[in-house]
Amino acid sequence: MAVTRASLVDAPREGRGPLKIGIVSPYGYPHPGGVNEHVRFTYEAMTGMGHDVWIITSKYGRERESEGHVIRLGTGWAAPANGSVGRVTLGLRFKKQAREVLEEHEFDILHFHEPFVPFLSPTMLDQSSTVNIATFHAFGGFSPSYWIGRRFAGHLAAKLGGRIAVSGAARHFINRYFPGDYQIIPNGVDMDRFTSAQPFEELRDGRTLNILFVGRLEERKGLIHLLKAYHRLRKRKVDARLLVIGAGPKLREYKRFVGLRGIRDVEFLGRVSDTEKVRYFASADIYCAPNTGQESFGIVLLEAMAAGVPIVASDIHGFKRVVERNVQGLLVEPRNPRALAAALYALARDPDMRHEMGDAGRVRAPEFTWDRVTERIVDYYYEVRERVLATGR
Questions:
Q1: Quick one: which of 73, 110, 118, 194 has the most CB atoms within 10 Å?
Q2: Is 191-367 a domain of CATH 3.40.50.2000?
Q3: CA distance 178 to 198
Q4: What is the CATH number of domain 5-188+369-391?
């Protein structure tokens, strides 16, 4: 459905003045996850810029239906997707609730994160008569759900006035199913948290090398390959410890792997708070991202760079635009523990290389601050809104 020119002409917020923005997240904000982190930081930055921003999301468990500037519709459920765990939102009164929210708030912009994730986002988009913009985060191989869904979601895609992809990999992936013009605006990092963090003193003894992994314990994050590589590293008499942050379905399997082989100094830390996480980054000597693929962007690599930690990462599409080869880190063939161990060994034996790569990360990371990223997003809002105003489409 086209946005009517008259409705925009009559809107009180024109040009470059403050906007009323609705950010739609189907992932149960504020539950942990890369998309919700994106939502949180852009919400804070936009609010700081003087815009009136609301978050529209789903409810999990006994959460309140509304809380401050967070509006919750329907109930979210976990579902397997893209080698990980996705979300599906269900509700009996979706359409009516969506219409009521949109009529009450009269948003200038609705910004959808993954607009085709069922069923919150498609319902909101279907009911919207304002300027709709979407950000696409996912990357992967062939997607049966998108292949089937494109036949039914074509009218929804036509309602998007603007499309953002967080990386070239994400743009390539979504463009296969919904061709169009996509603006690449990356994810960001909260520099202040990482540059001011204090390390854990007990981890900075000056002798033991700290290798850090952060991620969900599932196959595509590749921890099993890091465990095999770390086992090789210990056999080469490198004094190191492996710090594993995260939880997931493979935890028991990974602990069994470590126990059966007698691999020493592997610490499974589980989920940690944001404050603890940045302190672990400050304590790390090397950050390792052994992901097997299906990553559109490496937020955690930005965090390592902001903390000044050199990186060993898989050479996959989603990481190449974040880490420059042999500058902020070493890129190795995915699913190759031998190559991973060789890269870790090279950094372990060369403190000067670690120092140089860490410094290079600190230099590059400010390009991705949330303030800069959000400024680009808001500029795109104005650009799209002005175009819609001019064309009525």
A1: 110
A2: yes
A3: 45
A4: 3.40.50.2000
